[in-house]
Amino acid sequence: QLQLQESGPGLVKPSETLSLTCTVSGGSISSSSYYWGWIRQPPGKGLEWIGSIYYSGSTYYNPSLKSRVTISVDTSKNQFSLKLSSVTAADTAVYYCARHCGGYSQFDPWGQGTLVTVSS
Amino acid sequence: VIWMTQSPSLLSASTGDRVTISCRMSQGISSYLAWYQQKPGKAPELLIYAASTLQSGVPSRFSGSGSGTDFTLTISCLQSEDFATYYCQQYYSFPPSFGGGTKVEIK
Question: Please, what is the average pLDDT of chain A?
C-alpha cells in the first residue's frame, strides 16, 4: 500500500528557506497517472494547497505562494521536495505531502505531516 | 478564485444522530468536490470524491450529494469514531482549495 513520509527540519529561522522531502514507498513516483503535492495547515486553521509536481518535473503552484515556492522530484530516490523561501511566522504550519490524479483532483493518500515552526 | 463556504463551523451531536454538513461554492464546479475527515494530530483522510463517490474502505453511513454550487456530506448514524473535523475541497478550478472545516463534537 502506498505510503508517504515527510522529513526535514522542524525549526526554521525567519527569512531563511524551509526545505522538506517526501519519500514515497509502496509504489513508484514515476507512475504516469499521478501528481504529487504539498499542502499545509497552520495550527488550528484550515488547509492550503501549496503546489504539485509530475514525475517529469512539470510543476504548478498556488499563485499566493508562487514567488517563494520550488518543488522538485528525484525519481531515483522516489522522493519529491519542497522549498519555501523567505519564511515568516505566518509559514508556521504542519506540512503534508499527498498524491493526486491528473491536473487537479482529490488528494489520497496523505503523509502523516510534519510541523515546521518559523522562529528565531 | 472560487470561494467556499462550509457550514456550520461547529456541530454538536450525539452518537446515533444523522448529521449534515454543507459546502457552498461561489460559482458552479459541476461535481468536482471531495470530502475529508481529520482527527486531532492526524492527516486528513479522503471520504468522498466526485461529490458522491465513496472512497474504498469508508463506511456506508457516509454519503455525499450535490452538484453545481451546493454540496452536502451526510453521516446517517453518527458513531463515536466520527467525532472529527470535516473539510470539503474543490478541484474544478485552479488553484484547488478547501473549505474552512466543520468540527463535529460530542453534545
Answer: 96
